Amino acid sequence: MGKASSSKKIKRVQQAGVSRAPGQRRNLGFPALVLGIIVLGLAMVFYARSQIVEKVGEAPVVDQDKWYSAYGLDICGVYQDNPVAIGPDETGITPTTDGLIQIAPFVESAAGKNAQFGLFAEQIGLKLSNGELTLATGKTYKNGDNCKTEDGKESEGEVVMYVWPPQATDATKPETVTTDLDSQRFTEDGQAFVVAFVPKGTEPKLPPSLESLQNTSHTPATPTTATPAEATTTTIAEGGSGTVEESTTTTVAGG
């Protein structure tokens, strides 16, 4: 008798724990609703973020970003003097007196994906093409030309660009670029760029101007202008009395 009563109690407890009839499907409405809210929320976040990026633009942004990159020109193992601009700054990408590249675009044609090394090269009179570079002086170096290093060794040279990321050290391996040098982008503040005509297989070295990145201020290397020269003209007063009149005429060199 006691055993039968216990069995009935167990059966009632088991039945009480069943929330649905046999064959009845579980209600998935609430979990689906929660999942839908989460998905919608994530979609709104990504959309808002894309709108902000589109509105601000890709870095470097016009009239907002101001970056500096180290620069060097290596000819057969010898770094050349810091370049100067050969004309007025029309883009915001220009050299500084301490050997850096200032990237502070003030026109859309020099911002975002348009912030390319070719704009800087044009500013300093450097012409680049695949396997060839021409300095502002008119001197041209081509792949295969003879390259004589400081130790007197002569070998076949090549035109190449090395690009280091920010915070680079002597142990940092740069990206080596041999084509489309003009199209290399400025993507971050603190990069380092070296244009070189060196023997093939040369171990790249960071430019000396890298230390200038630590400076707190930089001055653009504006174009050099000719200093007006003063020419003195001597005339004899009318009548030949011997009185001398001097007049100063200003002429511009090269004019």
Characterization of this structure:
With 255 residues, the protein is of the alpha+beta class. The chain has a domain at 67-210. It has 3 helices and 13 strands. The protein starts with a helix and ends with a strand.
Itemize the secondary structure elements and their pairings.
Layout: H1 2-16, H2 29-56, E1 67-75, E2 78-79, E3 93-95, E4 100-103, H3 117-123, E5 127-129, E6 132-134, E7 140-142, E8 146-148, E9 154-164, E10 175-177, E11 192-199, E12 229-236, E13 244-251
Parallel strand pairs: 1-11
Antiparallel strand pairs: 1-2, 1-4, 3-4, 5-6, 6-7, 8-9, 9-10, 9-11, 12-13
Biggest beta-sheet profile: 8 strands, mixed
Which H/E pattern describes the elements? HHEEEEHEEEEEEEEE
The fraction of residues in strands falls at: 25-35%
Into which percent range does the helicity of residues fall? 10-25%
**Radius of gyration based on Cα positions:** 36 Å
Residue-averaged pLDDT, rounded?
Answer: 82
Number of E strands? 13
Q: What's the shape?
A: elongated
Class per helix and strand makeup: alpha+beta
What's the helix count? 3
Tell me the span between the first and last alpha carbons.
Answer: 128 Å
Q: Flag low-confidence runs.
A: 226-255
Task: Give me a quick take on this structure.
With 255 residues, the chain is an alpha+beta fold. Helices cover 20% and strands 27% of the residues. A hairpin with a 2-residue loop joins strand 5 and strand 6 (132-134).
Labels describing this entry:
alpha+beta, three-stranded antiparallel beta sheet, eight-stranded mixed beta sheet, 255 residues, 20% helix, elongated, 27% strand
